[in-house]
Amino acid sequence: MRAAVLHEIGQDKLEVLDDIEAAGFGPGKVRIRVRATGLCHSDLSAMNGVLPQPAPFVPGHEGAGEVLEVGEGVSRVRPGDRAVVCWLPACGACPACKRGQTELCLAGFMNAGIPNFRRAAGGPPDVFGFAGTGTFAEEVVVDAGCAVPIPDDVPFDVAALIGCGVTTGLGAALNTADVEAGSSVAVIGCGGVGISAIQGARLRGAAEIVAVDPVASRREAALRFGATGAVAPDGLPDAKQQMTGGEGFDYVFEVVGKSATARTAYENTRRGGTLVVVGAGALDDFLQLNMFELFFDEKRILPSLYGGGDVLRSYERTIALWRAGRIDLEGLITHRVPLAGINEALEQMRTGTALRTCIEI
Predict the structure, then answer these.
(1) For residue 132, what are the β-bridge partners?
(2) What is the reported pLDDT for 222?
(3) What's the distance, CA 42 to chain centroid?
(4) How far apart are alpha carbons 81 and 149 in whole angstroms?
(5) Cα separation of 236 and 213, whole Å?
(6) Which of 100, 128, 194, 309 could join 57 in a cystine, given CB atoms 3.0 to 4.6 angstroms apart?
(7) Termini Cα distance of the chain
(8) Per DSSP, what are the bridge partners of residue 84?
C-alpha cells in the first residue's frame, strides 16, 4: 500500500512509498482503510523535531475511514463501520481517567514508541506512526480505543477534522476556558484550530472576538467564522485599546505554540482574566513570567490538551452542533490534494495559505 514517510527528523519533504504495510494487527487492534486525513501543524512539528517522535515515521493523526477488520476482544466497532481516528484514547483505568480527566491519559502516548508499519512484507515493524497512528497511509492498524465509530451521515473529510483540530479548538473555548457570554476574546493564531476556538467563543456568546494572524486570508476567514475583528500581530495593541479600553481581553487563546506569542497573549489578558495555551510547543522554549506579575495580576493560565475534556463526549457534541448548523466544518477545508500531493499540502501549511488541507486517500 501507499504511505507518506519521513525518513529522518529535520527533513522538510515526505516520500510517498508503495511498499508500506500496516503492521501489528491482532487482539485489541483495528485495521482502518483511511479515506480522508487533515494536515495539522503538529505533523510539521513532529517532522522538524519540535514534538518528540521516533523516525522513520508516517505523519498524520487527524483521519477517518472504514473499519476493515477487528481483532479479538474488540466490540465497539465492526467491519464496515465508519470511524474517526482518535490519537489520544483513554484507557479508563489510570488515575487520570478515574478522575474524569481522560485527556490526560498517557496510554495513547505509549503507542508512539511502537512501530505500526513495515517496509518489507513479512518483516518486523520498522516504521512508526505519528502519535501511534499515522494517517498519511491507505491503511493503519491502531488500538481499539483509537477507532471511534461515527454516524453514516458524517462525511469522511468532516470526521477527520473532528479527530484533532476542531476538537482541540472548540474544546479550548467550551471546556478549558468556559467562555462567559458577553466577554471579550482574542485568538492568536487562526489556522484550523484557532478558527475552531473562534467558533467556540461565538457559541458561548462572546461579545467581542478579535482574530490575530499575520496572514491576510486567515484574518478574512476568521471574520466569516464569527470573529468581530481581525488584525495582524502589530495591530493587537490598537485592538486592545479599542475593544477593551486598554484593560485587556477577558480571554486570550494562544494557538501558535511559541513562548513569544504566549508572552504576548499574557500581556493582552486583563488582570484577573484567562490565558489559554492551546499551541503545542518545544521542550526547550520557555515562557518567562516574573513572580510579582504572576501574583499581582492574578491572571489564570490554563493549558488545554486536546480540548481539555472527555474526547468521546466532545466528538458527539461537535457532530450535534454541526448537524444543527451551529458550527461550520466544511468551510475549514480550503484545499484538497491526493496523497501523492502531500508535499504541496505541507507547503500550504507552512505559508499559511490553508486553514486545513484535506488529503484524500
Answers:
(1) none
(2) 98
(3) 7
(4) 7
(5) 10
(6) 128
(7) 11
(8) 64, 148
Helix (H, G, I), strand (E, B) or coil at 117: strand
Handedness of CA 29, 320, 34, 341 (dihedral sign): negative
Q: Measured between alpha carbons, how far is 104 from 310 in angstroms, rounded to an integer?
A: 10
Query: Measured between alpha carbons, how far is 126 from 116 in angstroms, rounded to an integer?
Result: 8
- Name the helix (H) or strand (E) containing 108: helix 107-110
Give the count of beta carbons closer than 10 Å to the beta carbon of residue 75: 7
Given this model, what pLDDT does residue 216 score?
96
Q: Which three cell numbers stand for residue 115?
A: 512501530
Give CA angle at 39 (115, 256), nearest 5°. 105
CB burial string 161-192: b at 16+ within 10 A, e below: bbbbbbbbbbbbbbbbbebeeebbbbbbbbbb
Taking each helix axis from N to C end, the angle separating 192-203 and 216-224, rounded to the nearest 10 degrees, works out to 30
Phi, psi values for residue 274, rounded to 5°: -130, 125
CB neighbours of residue 292 within 10 Å: 8
Say if CB 63 and CB 34 are below 8 A apart: yes
- Residue 301's pLDDT is 98
The backbone torsions φ and ψ at residue 337, rounded to the nearest 5 degrees and listed phi first, read -140, 155
- The answer to whether 309 touches 103, Cβ cutoff 8 Å, is yes
**Residues of the chain falling short of pLDDT 70:** none
Report strand pairing: 29-38 vs 62-70. Answer: antiparallel
Gap between the Cα atoms of 136 and 337, Å rounded: 12
pLDDT tens-digit series, residues 311-332 = 999 999 999 999 999 999 999 9
Q: Is the pTM of this model over 0.90?
A: yes
Radius of gyration of the chain (CA): 20
The dihedral sign for the CA sequence 29, 31, 37, 39: positive
Grid coordinates given for 35: 479515506
Amino acid at site 226:
G
Cβ-contact 116, 140 below 8 angstroms: yes
